Please model this.
Amino acid sequence: MHIPDGFLDAKTAVTTGVLAVAGLGLALRRVRQTLPPQQVPLLGLAAAFIFAAQMLNFPVGVGVSGHLLGGALAAALLGPAAAVIAMSAVLVLQCLLFSDGGVTALGANLFNMALAAPVAAWLVYRSLARVLDRRLAVALAAWLSTLTAALLCAGELAWSGRVGWQLVFPALGGVHALIGIGEALITALILGAIVAARPELLETSVATPRRDVLGLGLLLSLGLVLFIAPFACPWPDGLEKVAAQLGFEQHGSTLLKSPLADYAVPGLKWEGLGTIVSGVIGTLAVFALAWAVVRMMKVRGKM
Amino acid sequence: MAVENLRYRYADGSEALRGISFVVEPGERVALIGPNGAGKSTLLLHLNGLLPERPAELSAVQICGALVMPENFSKVRKNVGLLFQDPDDQLFCPTVFEDVAFGPRQLGVEGDALNAKVAAALAQVGLAGYENRLPHHLSRGEKRRVCLAGVLVCEPAVLALDEPTTDLDPRGRRELKLLLRRLPAAQLIATHDLELVVENCTRAILLDRGTVIAEGPPTALLADEQLMLAHGLERPHILQHLQHQHRHD
Amino acid sequence: MKPDFIDRYSRLASPVHQLAAGPKLLAGLALVLLVALWPGAPWRLLGAVAALLLALALLSRIPPRFLLRRLLIAGPFALGVAVLAVLQPGGLQIFIVMLAKSTLCLAAMILLTATTPFTDLLAALRRARVPGVFVTTLALLYRYLFVLADETLRMRRARMSRSFMPARAHHWRSLATVAGQLFLRAHDRAGRIFAAMSARGWEER
Model:
């Protein structure tokens, strides 16, 4: 999923660059505040681990093999902030040393694979690990994070005007829904092997405070709104629908009537832009609400 | 350096060190021998205060008059040079120069003074001009010597060496032994290499299951076949050669 | 993994190698940005850049075979997307421009990394005020990449020498065990590295 140079246009490169830098900055700040000093070398070693694990090929079908992407595994092992840093280091090294993934696409690649994938995986894993078996939780997280990264990538390519969205969404989404199954299986097996050998290693990472993911989660949803929402209608629906509903005129077939009905802000002419702006406003509103609820619950808990 | 009644328990409750006491005088070269799991490596880590879980017990170790405890860490760590078992653990910087420069940099040395110090330390271990080499291009013997340079560059009063001769080829081993004999610092060497003990050390301490079993001149201690076998060691062949030589003399 | 497959020629003494890492990095990035983000199909610009890169490649004295081989390794992903581009109406031109741009950028980056030791790039990043924790992470990643890759190969070989049935389910499980072991070893090594750093006076700043 490494996008090369020349596949993205300037606006997409800049937008994803800003998102990636913001995410990495947030993660670094979190880590500096919360990571005990003896864990600093672990960031580099975990990155080297992910890199080496990506070299292990597993058989998928006749003559086809896949390899680990590692976003969900990193998140489950290290927690969201450290996972973002380790995955970012891997991608920066792949770009600068192995010329794998373009320099102008580094922002996009970082955002998709080092930020969105581990953060999405973490959100799923953390909420499911309490009710489900840990391996099942991480498998679902891995599948979903692979698909998320692929759809973001598709959105960015479409946004850049290089490939039509009705072509790139089903293609990338379909392929990665399959690749995601392999990722899910291998991630679950690896996590299972680690838990079996050293169960105590995973206790610390699950206890990450909610604040850690708030900023990162916000960035993730911003990306989803920017790169996927304009093309998916109604959002967030399945890929089959995307493939079926060609054309922009069906935009905003509403699921629920909200103040931002039909995802269009009055006064904005261009439909795509209107969708994006309303999506951003919607995301911010949802997050403000969630934050307020969390704060209220905390206050009540103290009394 | 003085160790008095040092005890240590791992987080899982097993006892690693059960009341160890000994003294190393300036310029002495003392061998620490004993079977795997005797507590040799754990003991060396204590010299630097690197097992932080039990701060109260660390004060059982004194280096150059300073107790090993958090307030004294910077002084103690400057005085004790620790050579780790696996050179890949110790050689953590991307170039040889960066790695040797790591210690002095923490002490605020920069610029030409730093370059000179690094060059001198590398020359001392026979690797002059290796500054720009990459660790993953070096042989294990070279890696180990770079590690030693990184330790020597801080001019420690005490050297604590963990298995310094493992996976060296015979020539590398011979060179290392010569190098260690030339160094003025007091040395505490944890090793299975009994030839090294006989050739290099002034004294040997036998450690097993976290306690000191015996202590004495290497030739006498290692010649005690019963004692050696009882603690997972053996009488080194080199002693026979030495004794033959004595007879011929 | 052959330890020098990536920076085999990064320490030659050609004029291109001797440029300072910082300015070279900046110039390389500027070139890539220009090529990749210039809208439309600026054929003259692309031609000029191609000529410049060719001249630099000759000056650098790196065997052309090495550069070409690295240039020709295109990822399946890039190929897939390029094929998608051809499928749409008027896509052939988009496809050719995309391919030309990405090949030139790739060539520029390969030339940059092949003539600059990675450690110099790290130093340039540090001077550019990239946060210390991140540069340290990159440096450790670069240093231990080779150690861990070797460990992986050794563990796989050891497993393969004892397994006689290439059943698929077994393969997956053994792969996961290798990866799990690899993580545990990396985790423990991180602890020992911290000890080694502390022993030489490292304090978190």
Summary: The two ends of chain A are 49 Å apart (CA to CA). The first strand of chain A starts at residue 57 and ends at 61. Residues 234-270, 296-303 of chain A have pLDDT under 50 and may be disordered.
